[in-house]
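We treat protein structure as text, and this decision shapes the records that our systems exchange. Below, we set out a record of this kind in full and without editing:

***
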Amino acid sequence: MDARDALWMPFTANRAFKKDPKVVAKAKGMFLEDEAGHELIDGSAGLWCVNAGHGRKQIAEAVANQIETLDYSSGFQLGTPGAFKVAEKIKALLPEGFSSVFFTNSGSESADTALKIALAYHAAKGDPRRTLLVGRSKGYHGVNFGGLSVGGLPKNKKQFGPLLGNVAHIRDTHDLARNAFSVGQPEYGAEFADDLNRVIAVHGGDAIAAVIVEPMSGSGGVIIPPKGYLERLAAICKANGILLIFDEVITGFGRMAAPFGAHHYGVTPDIVTMAKGLTNGTIPMGAVACLEGIRETIIDSADPGIELFHGYTYSGHPVASAAALATLAIYEEEDLFGHAAKMAPVLEKAVHSLKQSPGVIDIRNDGLVAGVEFEPDAHGAGHRGQAIFNECWKRGVYVRFSGDIIAISPPLIVEEGHIDRITTVLGEAIRAVV
């Protein structure tokens, strides 16, 4: 038996991995190093999360010091200094109006927590009929049952039978016919928000608890919201008393060259979920932030005692909190969100230079993220995307693929030379594969 057989790898073609294993042994700054000592540029910030770059001494020292001082304390009925500080820091980063932060351990847990908070809020208001949860096609909200149910990626669901029943979906905004090769936000598609009115017509606006969307859909293929779409969706939600949840697990902490996608797109939702970049990917941690009035309504209407019967063993973990505080300090001290804004047009120009590459049917970008979509090959959907991913790896660049889409989302410390190398290698890989 192979010495690595004990590990069942997540979201991985395990049989293919055995034939061509890719094992990362070290990382520093913009670079990964495999077990053979080969260096690769990290064009994906790990998994959309290492926004400050790898191997940050400031974070490592903060984590080590915290373990020596207080390695763990329950978040149930007890508080720790770090958790209070992180909550306050997050609140200060968010658009005006947010009053509370609830800690989780991942984006998946954040999605499920947000959905539960939405249901609890309406029940606390005396409106328990509002139980329908609305997601969007191509949406990704993690892999727990709530997020999976409102998510819109069929392959993620098909193995698991019936999920939550009281769920509906609106259409996605992917529109190649009108928006292919858009630079930044596409011009067409604001009207797709009106699909929520179809759900309202069927179920009634007073039956819907929340709508959950990613401001920019990352795992679904780097789908950028059309101009006016999020504003229109928010207006429909507000007119019908529906909570709007932004899943900012990917878009939060600088990916859109702003603290959150809510800032970048100028739309403030009722609830924001986050994780990934909160700790620079070092220690698992997520959070859910709520506009003022949501927590207060739930607490004020509750019987004496616990007001929300929800939480996790590691909610607000002191070591994760230390990692978050150090990460947020780096973002501020080095103005990494500002640096991302400077690099965004560099990435935009570089990635759109691949427009004439063989097999490319769309290129899209916004902030410090870009996606290159390919026509599927004769082997079926996803084969070409994986082949290009493999070829990039061989040539010293790590990118992500989702089906036949290559996603580029480098750490916010990226410089022009890194971007040039990433897109040059991607171009070479495309020509080698297609």
Q: What stands out?
A: The chain is about 40% helix and 15% strand. The mean pLDDT is 97. The two ends are 36 Å apart (CA to CA). The first helix runs from residue 14 to 19.
